[in-house]
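hi! just following up on the protien thing from before. the input was this:
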Amino acid sequence: MLLERATRIADVLLRSIEPTSGMPWPTYNPAQRKGSMPKWHGNSCILAEVGTLQLEFLRLAVLRNDTRYAERIMPLFERLDTMPKPAGVPHGLFPNFVHMKQLRFVRDHVAFGALGDSFYEYLLKLWLFTDRRYARLKRMYAESAKAAREHLVLKSTPGNLTYISEWKTKRASHRMDHMACFMGGLFALASQTLDGHQRYLQLGAELTYTCYEIYQRQPTKLSPESVTFRAGADFASTKANGLYYLLRPEAIESMFYLWRFTHDVRFREMGWQIFVTMQRHCRIDGAGWSGLKDVTKVPPVKDDLQQTFLFAETFKYLWLLFSDDDQVPLDRFVFNTEGHPLLRMSGADVERSAVARRLLANFR
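and the predicted 3d structure came back as:
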């Protein structure tokens, strides 16, 4: 039944691919079979939207033995890999906006948080999902990780906190949003396969600690949507950056990965402290959970919204943080960007699947 439902959804979503450019429409009306562009996008797709389809559609194509479900999705990575970039964008990084029809990057805004995050995530995870067989994916991820380390990973003063900045107007902007906290876990996952194992694991641990500190330094001890790092003050939470808390999962997700790869009890302690604080400020007896409008106010005002990712990701990663390693083992599964585990393909699986071999031929 679930496979049939997934197939029906995929049939609808495939119609959202613009036939001339091959790019997915950001907004699609199934009843009218018409795509549209939100005004704030300009004429551009968002990098994370273009690069966060491949795991799911490849998995479905293999299960259905039907290349149709991924043959228009898989080439998007190759297209992005060869697309010209604005001047000043470091090699290995990809701007957040892609012109829908001209097939070029516009603006030089780069982010590992909102707008860009899961594109970089899927470079690594699709390579792992396909038994590490496709060199293009590994190269693209390795180049992005190297560029991030060289240009965007910075240290605060006076606390010497490691953070990952956005890139804007040819320089680091020193802004980091909560969604970028997943990078601690992604670097930890990369450390199991890329050269420089210990360096990436240490970087993942440092970023995760910074995210925990962002929580702990708020009056509510819950994280705002983003912060700006400032010389002499570590970071500042401001209304312009977003003082609200949306029950996001990314910090806890990274604590889960760091626990699995290090068994350092500090990461469990961090996750537990966040959960206890969520219970104090976000639990509504008999009615679920709510985000907060302002993490700097005590008592906080609830926003009366229980986000869908709370159970799909935040609580799932909390559960896994305190579970044994044989619960969804990371050498057998990859998690998609919404926290759903997908069983990795073995080498034999890839060889047996003509669909997988055909779809991934261009990634060698």
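The mean pLDDT is 95.
The radius of gyration is 20 Å.
cheers
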